[in-house]
């Protein structure tokens, strides 16, 4: 059977979007392996729901929303466990304790040290240029929370900039 | 616009940096920045943090994407029929009247008698089995695809010896393959998709000759179009995409000829390329 052109295009577009989708998933999950599982699951869901994609607007907004929904659903199903992702003070203490054993000089550690959703919000607005409203829609939170999360992310990155200057990369 | 007055100063300055403030709020905050040294320092810190975070997040894009993810997307099959179509399908209500039910019962009875008569007068099952075994077995599609995959792997490992007859000898390729394979063809021009025709080979697929047109691109990737004469029915499924580890295959059938496009399984446009080739070859 000849496959519908829209499906072929969607799969091609998903492959093209993969590096950015994976980056978004890393900001959600904090761990690369978990993020890759999330990406795989989201892409399969997107292909299955391909008929819902109208082709208007930004494909990544739709895919990111699916990813955030999937991540929320997966989190609900998981048993509650102690997480290092608490408030900012706890995180800084945890990072300080780990710094002797683990090289924290990677973006992955920086992301996993941030409270839930903060690095995703920073990515959406500061890196990918979404408006506050678009970012709020993707993350499923009120617009008022967007600005607070962004301020937290920027201050945390500013604090890290002193210890991990750009020129080391 | 957000009502920023209830938010802490860092949130207000964040919104100012993003241009998500009303003209009045902008005016107020700029006045505060002009007069308050701490606010200026915080504003600069937020700007610096945004710049640092942006660069660090861009570093993630430099990391290689696992090939397994690409394959997973390409091998995911979409639902066969769209839900929208199913939802709009009119419902058929089966509620026959008495005479209609009687007529249907009589027709079914007559059909049943007919089938019973033909089954009773048909030759023995043993005879049918004997006859069936004398027919030649249909060509095994999987065998020839396995051979095409093996030859594609061989090509990838010897990029300096891709073809038997180079692309410069176009007439020789045309007459040679038409005679050897027994099907007319044209060499598709894929230069618009950045694939350059390198030449041709004849290989064996399931012990039968198969024509192979080889292309490469600037990245050193190799694709090949393989074709052979066959006797498959015209309604055979076409543009079926399968992945065998690092090799992706798209198969289709047209006018007594089977085609395969073989290339890297990470190449997302293989299916689309196959459709273009099908119209050009």
Summarize the structure.
The complex is a heterodimer of chains A (169) and B (281). Chain A is an all-alpha fold. In chain A, 69% of the residues lie in helices and 0% in strands.
What does this structure look like?
The complex is a heterodimer of chains A (169) and B (281). Chain A has 169 residues and is mainly alpha-helical. Chain A has 2 domains: 2-76, Rna Polymerase Sigma Factor, Chain: A (Orthogonal Bundle), CATH 1.10.1740; 102-160, Arc Repressor Mutant, subunit A (Orthogonal Bundle), CATH 1.10.10. Chain A is built from 8 helices and no strands. Chain A has helices at residues 5-29, 32-48, 59-77, 88-98, 107-112, 118-127, 132-139, 143-163. Chain A is globular, with a radius of gyration of 17 Å. Mean pLDDT of chain A is 79; it is low at 94-104. By secondary structure, chain B is an alpha+beta fold. Among the domains of chain B are: 2-66; 161-278, Phosphorylase Kinase, domain 1, CATH 3.30.200. Helix content of chain B is 48%, strand content 18%. Chain B is built from 10 helices and 7 strands. Chain B has helices spanning 9-17, 23-35, 37-60, 67-75, 83-88, 98-121, 125-134, 141-157, 170-181, 270-280, and strands at 165-166, 196-205, 208-216, 222-229, 240-244, 247-254, 257-264. A 7-stranded antiparallel beta sheet of chain B has the order 1-2-3-4-7-6-5, with helices on both faces. In chain B, β2 (196-205) and β3 (208-216) form a beta hairpin. In chain B, α1 packs across α3 (37-60). The longest helix of chain B is centred in the N-terminal third of the chain and has 24 residues, at 37-60. Chain B is flat, with a radius of gyration of 33 Å. The two termini of chain B are 58 Å apart. Chains A and B meet through α1, α2, α6 and α8 of A and α1, α3 and α4 of B.
